[in-house]
Structure formats: structure tokens, C-alpha cells
Design a protein that fits this description.
Outer membrane efflux protein, 14 helices, mainly alpha, coiled coil, elongated, signal
């Protein structure tokens, strides 16, 4: 057992302690075999390079990365561009949303809805651009981990410690992460250009500078959400809808113009017709109101239809409010779960793996896998945070009297994209 413990650091360092003993038991290589002599010389040089570092290839890779010329990192030009500032800058390009008070309620409502649509579009573009930039940075890190794994595997094959099949697995992972990096760059560029169009940026230099003006990540969701009565919330949303308010006024005028009690008579007649429907199957024909006095009164029919349409619209609006509020609560819980629970746990796991790796108790591949898991969890946390703020934007649009967007904001699983355990 003590001998195995003494040998373990050498295994972690990716050396081959059994090679000299094995070589001594074999038939000596003929001196005139140039191919075998060159192979032995390459193996010897590779292991000599690794031997200069206490933990083998991984330290060699880190040393090479530290001694590369530093990449030029552009300085952030001033404070980060917030969503509110983006909205203010974008509104300067929409003079039609400003001016004197509209002449009638219809024009006022149309201008208000246009303003809400513009602000929502700008805020969504800002949120998408911030997420895309963060996702690109995280994918860049994932790609660098894959590059390190592939390079380490190549040197392992060169030293004779690995088979070509194991190297191919690392190279497939490297190619997959490289493809994801290209896609992340494409997504980031598209999101940045959409925001640039809203802000009125005209030159390529302005659009390029926008990448440095955005914050590194979206704001953290609040620790808790207020939990008011759901019916109170729905009533607030209904009251804020200017279209419903105008529809309520028009319906009231139509109903008020009818003789007293006429609408109630029509309601009773309809209830009687509904009572004739079969209870054990579908009806063979539509229900009929037998009182022809009620069916011949056109104003009565129009008022009844307007009243029913208003009831349907208010019911739909209340349902939308409950759905939007429920999704906001769900996305808040997911964002808090991934950002304040899952990500810290995976980060702590990576730190513990690093400590054990430094103590030569875990392998290089376990460290790379822990890093991949942490990057995957960080990506999931960023997407969950983005989903929360999208749900928040949908909710705010409802409260302001705007339309219901019903945006799909399902966050991905935190385990998506984690490293395989086949090393």
C-alpha cells in the first residue's frame, strides 16, 4: 500500500514510471533502426519537458499560457449602459411618440400602446445583448478548456501514455466546443446589432464599442417577491387596459339605451333554451329562443353581444394576469435556485477539486471536468436570470396596459453541457 501511495503522484503527473524497468527486460533495440531510435528520442524529449514541472503536462500548459503575449483588452468607455439609459437614447429617435396631448381617447390610447411597444422592444434587445455577450464569454472559457484537454491528450499520445482513441475523444470535444463558440459569436453579434438599431448607431466603430459598454451580466433578481392577492393583481391589470375601458364605455351606452328589463328577459330566454340541450350527448341543432319579440329587436341583440364580448375580454385579461404573475414567480424561483444555490455549489466543488489536484489526490481530467461543470452551471444561471427579467418585462407591460406577450422563458437545466466522465 505504501508503495502504491508513493507511485500515485507520478501517475497524477502523467509520467510513466514503469517504462525504464519494462525496457530493461526487452530485447535491445538494434542500433541501426532509425525509426525506433527516433521514436525513443521523441518520447524521451517529451517526458523531459514534462519533468521540468512538478505536476506534469497541465503545469506545462499553464506555463505556456502565462508566457504568451498578453491580449489587448479594450478599456470600458465610462459606466456601463443600463436598460433605462438605452430606452432614453432610443426614444430620441421616435419624435412621433411625443407632442401635444392627443385630441381624442383613441389617439391617446394608440400613442400609449406605441410607446409601450417601443420601450419593451428596446429593453428586450438590451437584455438579449447582455446575455449574448455573457454567453460568449462563458463559451470562450469552455472552448479554452477543451483546447487544453486536446493539447494535453496530444502530448500524452506523443509520450506514449495514451492511445489514439482517447485523443480522438478529446479532439471531438474540442471540435464541438469550437462550433458552439462560432454559434455564440454569431448570436452575440446579432443581439448587439439589434440593440444598435434601436439606439441609432451608424458606424461600425460605435457598434463595436457597444460590446464594451454593456454590463458583464444582468442584474440579480430581488431576494423575494411580494405576494399580493391574485384577484387584486388581476383587477389592477384589467383597470390598466385602456382598450377594455373604452369597450366598457361603449357597452354601457348600448345597454343604457335599451328599455328597462329587456336585457334581463333575453337572458332568461337564453337560459331556457340552454336547458333544452341534451345531457347525455351533443345537440342535433342550435338552441332556439321562442319569443320572437326578443329576436327581432336588433339593438337588443347588439347590446347583448357587446356585453358578452366585454365579459370574455375581461376574463381573458384576468387569466393573462394570473398566468404572467405565476410565470414571474416561477422564473424568480428558478433564477434564485440556479444563481444562489446551484452555481455556488458547483463552484465550491471545482475549488475543492483544485485543492485535491494541487495535493496530487485527483487527476488533471477530474479538474477539467469540474471546470466544465462550473461553466455549464454559470451558463444555466445566466439564462435563468435572463428568463426572469423577460418574465418581469412581460408583467410590467401588462400592468401598464399593454398587450400580453406570453414569452416562452423556460430556463435550461443546470446540468446541460456538463463534461463526460469517460476519462
Amino acid at each position: 500500500m505504501n508503495a502504491m501511495k508513493r507511485a500515485w503522484p507520478a501517475v497524477v503527473a502523467l509520467a510513466v514510471p514503469w517504462w525504464p524497468a519494462w525496457a530493461q527486460t526487452q530485447t535491445p533495440t538494434p542500433p541501426d533502426n532509425p525509426a525506433l531510435s527516433e521514436a525513443r528520442q521523441q518520447w524521451r524529449e517529451a517526458n523531459e519537458r514534462v519533468g521540468e514541472f512538478p505536476r506534469g503536462h497541465i503545469d506545462l500548459l499553464k506555463w505556456e499560457q502565462r508566457n504568451l503575449p498578453p491580449a489587448a483588452t479594450p478599456a470600458r468607455p465610462g459606466p456601463a449602459l443600463t436598460a433605462d439609459e438605452a430606452v432614453r437614447r432610443a426614444l430620441r429617435l421616435r419624435p412621433e411618440l411625443f407632442g401635444a396631448a392627443p385630441a381624442n381617447p383613441v389617439q391617446a390610447r394608440e400613442r400609449h400602446l406605441a410607446l409601450l411597444a417601443h420601450i419593451t422592444r428596446v429593453r428586450q434587445a438590451w437584455q438579449d445583448a447582455v446575455l449574448a455577450a455573457q454567453a460568449l464569454a462563458l463559451q470562450q472559457a469552455r472552448s479554452e478548456v477543451a483546447d487544453s484537454g486536446a493539447e494535453l491528450g496530444r502530448r500524452m499520445v506523443q509520450a506514449g501514455n495514451w492511445s489514439q482513441a482517447r485523443l480522438l475523444r478529446e479532439q471531438v470535444t474540442q471540435a464541438r466546443e469550437g462550433l458552439a463558440l462560432v454559434q455564440a459569436r454569431q448570436a452575440e453579434r446579432g443581439a448587439r446589432e439589434r440593440l444598435a438599431r434601436e439606439l441609432g448607431l451608424t458606424s461600425a466603430s460605435e457598434v463595436a464599442a457597444l460590446a464594451q459598454q454593456l454590463p458583464a451580466e444582468l442584474p440579480e433578481p430581488p431576494a423575494t417577491l411580494d405576494t399580493p392577492d391574485i384577484d387584486t393583481i388581476a383587477s389592477r391589470v384589467v383597470a390598466a387596459d385602456a382598450t377594455l375601458a373604452q369597450q366598457r364605455l361603449d357597452t354601457g351606452r348600448q345597454v343604457g339605451a335599451l328599455p328597462g328589463g329587456l336585457l334581463e328577459q333575453l337572458a332568461r330566454a337564453r337560459e331556457g333554451a340552454v336547458a333544452t340541450l341534451p345531457s347525455d350527448g351533443l345537440p342535433a341543432s342550435a338552441p332556439v329562443i321562442t319569443d320572437t319579440r326578443l329576436t327581432r329587436e336588433h339593438a337588443l341583440g347588439e347590446a347583448a353581444e357587446a356585453q358578452a364580448a366585454l365579459a370574455r375580454a375581461e376574463t381573458e385579461r384576468r387569466s393573462q394576469a394570473r398566468e404572467a404573475w405565476g410565470r414571474l414567480q416561477d422564473q424568480h424561483a428558478l433564477a434564485r435556485q440556479t444563481g444562489t444555490l446551484m452555481l455556488p455549489l458547483v463552484t465550491a466543488q471545482e475549488q475543492e477539486t483544485l485543492l485535491r489536484y494541487n495535493g496530487m489526490l485527483q487527476s488533471t481530467w477530474e479538474l477539467l471536468d469540474a471546470t466544465r461543470e462550473r461553466l455549464a452551471a454559470a451558463t444555466a444561471a445566466a439564462q435563468a436570470r435572463h428568463a426572469y427579467w423577460t418574465a418581469w418585462l412581460d408583467w410590467q407591460l401588462l400592468l401598464a396596459g399593454g398587450p400580453y406577450r406570453a414569452t416562452a422563458t423556460d430556463a435550461p437545466s443546470a446540468s446541460a453541457g456538463t463534461a463526460s466522465e469517460d476519462h
